[in-house]
Structure formats: C-alpha cells, structure tokens
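yo

u said u wanted the structure for the complex thing, so here. seqs first:
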Amino acid sequence: MFYVQSIFILTLIGIFYIYLCLRTLVPQFKKVIYPFNLATKMALMSVIAGFGIVFLYEINAGMIYFKGYANGPSWYIGHIFLIILTLLVFTLSTLLFRMTFLFFKTFSSQNLSVELAKNNLQISGLFSTYFIILCLLITEPMIKFIDVIVDLNY
Amino acid sequence: MRELANIILLIVFGIFYLTSFTKVQTAFFNRFSVRNNASIILFISSILASGIVLIDISKVMTEAFVFFYDHNELSKAFIYLFLYFVGAWLFSWALFRASFFLVSVITKENEHDELAKNNVELSLMHGVILVLLSFVVAPSLSELGASFIPYPKLPF
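structre next:
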C-alpha cells in the first residue's frame, strides 16, 4: 500500500512542480524575446534542469519523513509535509534563479537579457552552467538545513 | 545557525570561484583571434569542469566548517575553507592546461590552430575529456582535502 501511495503522491507532486516551474519561468523568458531563439531556449532548458535537480534532492530527503508517517494513523501529515517541502524548495529555487541573474548582472559587463535576445550562445551557455553549478552546490546544504529545522519540530 | 552560515559561505565562495575562473578563462580564450563555436564549447566545458571540482570539494568544505564551528575555532574554519577554495581553483586550472597537452598527444593536432579553424569535433572531444577527468579526479582530490581535517583518532 505504501508503494502505491508514494507513486501516486510523487507523480502528482512532480507534475505540480513542473507545472509551477513552467508557469513561473516561461513568462520570465518571454519578456526577453518571443518567439524564443536558440540561446533563450538553451537558458530556459537549463534553468528547468536546475529546478529539477533541486527537486530530486528534496524528494530524496522528503521521502524519509513520508515513510515515517505513511503507515501510522496520521498518514496525511506525510503528504502535507511533502507538499509544503516542495513549495519551500520551489521558492528557494526561484530565489537561486534570481540570485544567479543578479550575480551575472553584477559581475559580467554584458546585459544578460540583451545578450539572450541577440542569440549570444556563449552568454547563454555560461549562465546555464553557473545556474546548474550553483544548484548542485547549494541544494545539499539547503536540504540539510531544512532537515535540522524539521528535526527540531519533529 | 551553523547550516545557514555554511550555505551563505558556499554561495559567496561559489560566486567568487566561478567569476574569477571565468575571468581567467576569458583572458586565455581571447588569445584566439576568432570567437567561434568550437572555442565557445571548450570555454563552457572548462567552466563546467571547474564547477564539478567545486561541487565535490564543497562537501569537504562543509565538513571542515562544521568540525571547526563545533570546536569554536571559526578562524581555522575560514582558513580551511579558503585553502580548499584556492586548492580547487588551482587544480581546475592545472587540469584544463593538462587536458590541452593530453588532447594534443591523442590527436596529434595543433589545437590552437584547430580551434581557430572552428573544429567543433575536436573541441567537443576536448570538452568531454575535461568533464570526465573532473568527475574521475575530483573525488580523490576531496579525499585528500578531507585528510587534512584534524579529526580525533579512534582507538580501533
């Protein structure tokens, strides 16, 4: 029963997360240029991949708590916890995306939006690499931090 | 508090690492007169490879920070973090330069000329070699780094 329950909730949460990502990110990139050029498409895909990396880490950590509650009488707490964790992680990913945008603006002499509109593949590739590296760098400590907060209230 | 401080430090070090490495690589690639697809692929691969090293070493950085934070030795924590950062940076740079030598031995081509001629196949191969080498060597570098953390010796 637990496996069916976890497959069901993970599918729903996964679809919800991807939907949320697309609803937030696509309008951001549409502001740069629409229809998308190759550079913008590449940046968008890598940002979605970055969001996905953060989500994968989160699900691995969240499932530990989910398992803990799944077979007990208060099984719904596990579900609620997973949903809250997903929303929290989505907010943190968005913050990371904004931060990468800001840091790129500050440290690079080029304007990212203008360069993406000009189909500058180098700048797009650089931004994509930065975002994915920062996601991989920050996610694990971030999940540990959330773990500590949850453990305090467990 | 400890975890939050670690996240902030990792963000600061990460941004500084990526920015400084990009600046050095940009200066290196500016020596090629033309900026074409081949040189862009190699440029991005080199940044990616340096990022892989950073991600691996960041686990050791976290371990060192937590260890010294728990022992109330914040100055040592910062020194260790900084040394790991410098070590990873220099290693990434050395790996990039060594990969140039490796590719020239494997292919018997003058890579500078080939990049100027926009030889995408060669730059893709170089990029893949660089990223793979980073994946293979970075864990050993992290283990080496972790061996410098003065953990108490266990009697068994």
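Chain B has a mean pLDDT of 89. Residues 2-146 of chain B form one domain.
cya
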